[in-house]
Design a protein that fits this description.
By secondary structure, the chain is α/β, with parallel strands linked by helices. Helix content is 30%, strand content 19%. The chain folds into 3 domains: 11-140; 155-283 and 380-391, 3-Layer(aba) Sandwich (Rossmann fold); 292-363, no CATH class. The chain is built from 10 helices and 12 strands. The strands form 3 sheets. It has a 7-stranded mixed beta sheet with strand order 5-4-6-7-8-11-12, sandwiched between helices. Strands 1-2-3 form a 3-stranded antiparallel beta sheet. Strands 9-10 form a two-stranded antiparallel sheet. Strand 4 (176-180), helix 4 and strand 5 form a beta-alpha-beta unit. Helix 3 packs across helix 4 (183-198) and helix 9 packs across helix 10. It starts with 10 loop residues before the first helix and ends in a 6-residue tail after the last strand.
């Protein structure tokens, strides 16, 4: 993403997105393969199931789908959603490094898990550049063997956690769902609906809003009329702020339990004083009483990085914590395997008995049926107090 701009660019807010992940599904169908073959002047035959795809042909799948009203002036989707909302006028793909472990095949049901690994701002004679490094892992959905092991906030699990928090802390009986109208919002709508069904519940209503909406009063009015006792919110900083401001205009005081979206930017500035009423999920916080591991890690960062004076200077805390625990778990898996062979390491993950990590003490974190080390009972629920993200219950830093 590049080009100079007079618009303020909050690097710390953009870096809050590091560690965020999303997963999308797709199926390797034969028609795109035949179409690209024809483009390359080969026979446009639809291949049979099981036919391997050449390297790079995975780009035929996981194509973004957006309504015309969701397209920005640069031809990309409107800013927000999974990627950080960088306020620069042009976007470009700078390059990729790819590793192919084995070919995808026609008929495969795939899942692509995308994680933001880094956000870097650089300034030079040509203006300001923001580099966003995203790591994509494409695997067969339900593949056996499965080589994907995660230490992160996975949408389906976050959705269950949101409902769990709403029930436990607000006695939710009829929550309303309000999500941003993009693929991230759509997938979480499905996840929240599934979480409700698993609890024998139904949403009071489901509403969507656009990333550039400045008034969400009609959607919220319908949810209020339907009897919503809690709002389950999925949206990025700007859209979520508009939900809060619209609630202010309505004078409707209703608990809001949110996905991680508000953590990614200037939420308190955009949402106003009632930003503090939105509770959202994180995987870790350096504020509050720390375990011995947390104390050691924070002390090490303060010693190594002069700019880290206290917990508020570790941004994003979730990215640091996820990466710290993930790397130590990988090291343990390699140690258990006694090898760097891929399948041996996979088996090594299953052999990890206990690890005192930053996020939690992991006991048998991975099994053949579970590759997610963090579940809905491990999240930290937070809110903004001033400009700091603090665990719920902390009045000040």
């Amino acid at each position: 993403m590049s080009a100079a701009t007079n618009e303020s660019l909050d690097e710390a807010a953009l870096r809050q997105r590091i560690g965020r992940s999303e997963s999308v599904d797709d199926v390797v169908t034969p028609t795109p393969v035949a179409a690209l073959s024809a483009t390359l002047d080969a026979l446009p035959e639809r291949p049979a199931d099981g036919t391997p795809l050449p390297p790079l042909w995975h780009w035929l799948y996981f194509l973004p789908l957006h309504r015309q009203s969701e397209i920005g002036p640069d031809g990309h989707a409107l800013r927000g959603g999974f990627l950080p909302p960088v306020p620069l006028p042009r976007r470009m793909w700078a390059g990729s490094q790819l590793t192919f472990h084995e070919p995808l095949r026609v008929g495969d049901r795939l899942v692509r898990t995308s994680t933001i690994d880094d956000v870097t701002v650089k300034r030079g004679r040509s203006g300001t550049l923001v580099f966003v490094r995203v790591r994509h892992l494409i695997t067969r959905n339900g593949a056996n063997p499965n080589f994907v092991f995660r230490v992160s906030a996975v949408d389906d699990i976050v959705d269950r956690a949101m409902l769990q928090y709403a029930e436990k802390n607000h006695g939710a009986k009829s929550p309303g769902i309000i999500v941003v109208n993009n693929p991230w919002g759509e997938s979480n709508q499905k996840g929240l609906t599934a979480a409700l069904q698993a609890r024998g519940m139904k949403p009071a209503g489901v509403e969507k809003f656009e990333a550039n909406d400045v008034d969400v009063t009609p959607q919220l009015s319908r949810l209020k009329s339907a009897g919503s006792d809690v709002l389950l919110l999925v949206g990025n900083v700007g859209p979520s702020a508009q939900v809060v401001k619209s609630l202010d205009r309505m004078g409707w005081k209703v608990p809001i339990v949110s996905h991680w979206g508000p953590a990614g930017g200037r939420f308190t500035e955009l949402a106003g004083p009632n930003a503090k009423d939105v509770v959202f999920v994180q995987t870790y916080s350096f504020f509050g009483k720390q375990t011995p591991v947390g104390q050691r890690v924070l002390a090490a960062m303060q010693k190594k990085y002069p700019d880290v004076k206290g917990p508020g200077d570790v941004t994003p805390a979730v990215g640091v914590a996820n990466a710290y625990d993930a790397m130590h778990l990988v090291a343990l898996a390699i140690q258990k395997a006694g090898s760097t062979d891929g399948d041996a390491i996979r088996q090594g993950f299953y052999k990890i008995d206990k690890y005192d990590g930053l996020i939690k003490t992991y006991v048998k974190p991975f099994t053949p049926d579970n590759h997610d080390a963090i579940n809905e009972n491990d999240y930290v629920w937070t809110r903004f107090v001033g400009d700091e993200i603090l665990p719920v219950g902390m009045a000040s830093k």
